[in-house]
Write a structure and sequence with these properties.
The complex is a heterodimer of chains A (about 550) and B (about 110). Chain A is an alpha+beta fold and about 550 residues long. Chain A contains 18 helices and 18 strands. Chain A folds into 2 domains: about 130 residues, Penicillin-binding protein 2a (Domain 2); about 325 residues, 3-Layer(aba) Sandwich (Beta-lactamase), CATH 3.40.710.10. In chain A, strands 1, 2, 3, 4 and 5 form a 5-stranded mixed sheet that branches. Chain A has a 5-stranded antiparallel sheet with strand order 7-6-18-17-16, with helices on both faces. Chain B is mainly alpha-helical and about 110 residues long. Chain B starts with a helix and ends in an 11-residue tail after the last helix. Classes of the chains: A alpha+beta (about 550), B mainly alpha (about 110). Chains A and B meet through helix 1, strand 2, helix 9 and helix 18 of A and helix 1 and helix 2 of B.
């Protein structure tokens, strides 16, 4: 290897040459270090250039702030009116060590919140072993201000979210409620829990099919009718029969969803989809339709309904004796149990049950509520059972199920399942064919007679051709049916000329003589007068009394 | 230019580059930190505004609720839902309207 430096040198230079020879590895190290540094710098520069020209690295993060996310989405009606939302609330807290005078502090807080347990507050404020204690949850901003104005030492607040229902009692059973931790407990809050949470993360509301204006009218008229009839409870539902959308559904008695803890279980029970009853004569139109569909009768057939009809030793009678030859129209208009029982027996239990299944009366209601009560529908084994089913006994179903069954009259014989979610204009509802259009039209004309000439005259509203059927089902006591405990109802379709809407209103445990035609039908008429303009229908004005 | 000078020059350039990069990095980090704090504050403000909005929307919905509007209508306008006045025949409407004012004539 060639030495570094001159090959010939003096002695002094020789020693220098030796130093040079010794310094050579050091220079190599410096050179390697310099090269390493340069490479590192080059890499850093390259990365800096890459970062400088590779777009906005914070773009994704900023995008994350764009949509305001909440744990639970707002619930709005079909017109965007707010039904449920989440607002900022506060938890009242205290640091016991900093509280000067626990008894005085507890007394001051108790004056502000009378329902507050003063003893419990005292205990917590005096518990110096804990750094922080919680005194009350869900304070509104105004309540927070009120506490702040007291100037209490050691008292503080922790922010939290609270679910509120701005409409108060309106649609309380349908909406349901959540607990203080915003866990759904009832209504659509629970029935649509996943959907509400998903919509919350997407920053969009959940839109129900309800219309608050119609809802309010239905609720106030149900309230008025239930109080007037001294009923134990009531239920009402209005559907767009073509789409299955529920425009309003009301249960009585009602409660404020914001104060649900103060309402009893009985008051909080949803009567539309969570309570079953024997529906009575409102099933008779279906019995006639089944018989017509199976060609077991014709519109011209004449029945003798003047005598009791004995089945298996039990006499079936009508409330009012119907004299002379009667047609199918008369059976419905005068609500003849005898006529309906005869038709049911011609049909037989098997076919009857198949039709009831297709009408959705043997299944849970399809509404998106937390609690959907399954029907009580034992097999009709005897002739008496089959005959009873013909006029609405032996099958207990919900008002929602019955309203769903009545959609056949708005869809040329096909049933549409009710929903609480608003459908998009282009969405097509699933239809279950049950009756032919001809049979449906025929029975519809008989139902119109019920309102013009029969038991449902009180449901008639000039200008709106209502077609319907009254129902007065005696309630089963310990062993027998009681005449003075009725489930009084009216189910209708309107306008009969071009059926679209289905309405059902029922009052539970009305007294003797409080027939559906006397207590439920007038409430339906009053409701229709109020909501007709909202549905684009025109009520013919009545001439003023002179 | 000698080799040693070149190396020294490179070393000086490298040192300057290192200093610039260090200072630049420090500045970038402090700027990013400030921006992050600002973004966080904005986020907080948005959340608070959003919460206020939600509370206001709830208040509006409560004030516009049918029950409240009906109560106001009864109190201030003496109008009740479903009242006879809502379905008057056309010919009788004149009876409910205020009488036409007589044209004032100046003497």
């Amino acid at each position: 290897m060639r030495p570094v430096g001159p090959t010939h040198a003096f002695a002094a230079d020789r020693s220098f040459g030796a130093e040079v020879a010794e310094a050579a590895p050091a220079r190599h190290r410096v050179r390697f270090l310099a090269i390493g540094l340069l490479i590192a710098l080059a890499l850093l520069s390259a990365r800096a250039i890459q970062l400088a020209f590779s777009g906005d690295p914070t773009a994704e993060r900023r995008g994350g702030f764009a949509a305001a996310q909440v744990e639970r989405a707002d619930i709005v009606d079909r017109n965007g009116v707010l039904l449920a939302t989440t607002v900022r609330a506060f938890t009242l807290t205290a640091i016991p060590e900093r509280v000067w005078n626990p008894p005085e502090t507890a007394a001051a807080l108790a004056r502000l919140f009378p329902d507050m347990n003063r003893g419990m507050v005292m205990r917590r404020l005096s518990d110096r072993s804990r750094d922080l204690v919680f005194l009350r949850r869900g304070l509104t901003p105004n309540q927070r201000e009120a506490v702040l104005s007291l100037g209490l030492a050691g008292i503080g607040f922790a922010p939290e979210d609270r679910r509120v229902y701005p409409q108060g009692t309106l649609a309380a059973h349908a909406l349901g409620f959540t607990n203080v931790d915003r866990h759904a407990l009832a209504g659509v809050e629970l029935g649509l829990d996943d959907q509400i949470r998903r919509a919350g993360t997407e920053g969009r509301p959940v839109r129900l099919s309800i219309d608050v204006r119609i809802q309010y009218a239905l609720e106030t008229e149900l309230d008025s009718a239930a109080r007037g009839a001294h009923a134990a409870s009531g239920a009402a539902i209005l559907l767009d029969g073509r789409t299955g959308e529920t425009l309003a559904l009301a249960s009585w008695p009602t409660f404020d969803a914001n104060e649900f803890a103060g309402a009893s279980e009985n008051v909080r029970t949803d009567r539309v989809a969570g309570d079953v009853h024997e529906l009575g004569s409102t099933l008779k139109p279906f019995t006639e339709a089944m018989a017509l569909q199976e060609r077991l009768t014709t519109s011209g057939e004449l029945f003798d309904l003047s005598q009791p009809f004995v089945v298996d030793g039990n006499a079936i009678v009508d409330d009012e004796r119907i004299l002379g030859p009667s047609t199918l129209r008369d059976i419905l208009a005068h609500s003849s149990n005898i006529g309906a029982a005869r038709l049911a027996l011609r049909l037989g239990g098997e076919r009857q049950r198949a039709y009831l299944a297709r009408l959705g009366l043997l299944a849970q209601p399809s509404l998106e509520l937390a609690r959907s009560q399954a029907p009580i529908a034992p097999l009709a084994r005897t002739r008496r059972d089959i005959a009873g089913l013909g006029f609405g006994y032996g099958l207990a179903a919900t008002p929602a199920s019955l309203a769903g069954a009545y959609t056949v009259f708005a869809n040329n014989g096909a049933r549409v399942a009710p929903t609480l979610l608003m459908r998009t204009p282009d969405a097509r509802a699933t239809r279950t064919p049950v009756f032919s259009p001809a049979v449906t039209q025929q029975v519809l004309s008989y139902m119109r007679s019920v309102v013009t000439d029969g038991t449902g005259r009180a449901a008639d509203v000039p200008g709106i051709a209502m077609a319907g059927k009254t129902g007065t089902a005696e309630k089963l006591g310990d062993e027998t049916y009681a005449e003075n405990h009725n489930f009084s109802s009216f189910a209708g379709v309107f306008p009969a000329t071009n059926p679209r809407y289905v309405i059902f209103l029922a009052l539970d445990d009305t007294g003797e003589g409080a027939a559906g035609g006397a207590v439920a039908a007038p409430a339906v008429a009053r409701t229709l007068r109020r909501i007709a303009p909202m549905l684009g229908l025109r009520v013919e004005p009545r001439a003023p009394s002179p | 230019m000698g080799k040693a000078q070149l190396i020294r020059g490179l070393q000086i350039v490298a040192a300057i580059l290192i200093v610039v990069l260090v200072v630049g990095l420090y500045k970038a980090k402090s700027d990013a930190s400030r921006a992050d704090a600002h973004v966080r504050q904005l986020h907080q403000t948005i959340a608070e505004t959003e919460a206020s909005n939600r509370a206001l929307n709830a208040e509006i919905a409560h004030l516009e609720s049918p029950a409240h509007v009906e109560q106001l209508a009864q109190e201030h306008l003496d109008v009740a839902p479903g009242a006879q006045s809502a379905a008057l025949p056309e010919r009788t409407m004149a009876n409910r309207l205020p009488a036409p004012r007589e044209r004032q004539t100046h003497p």
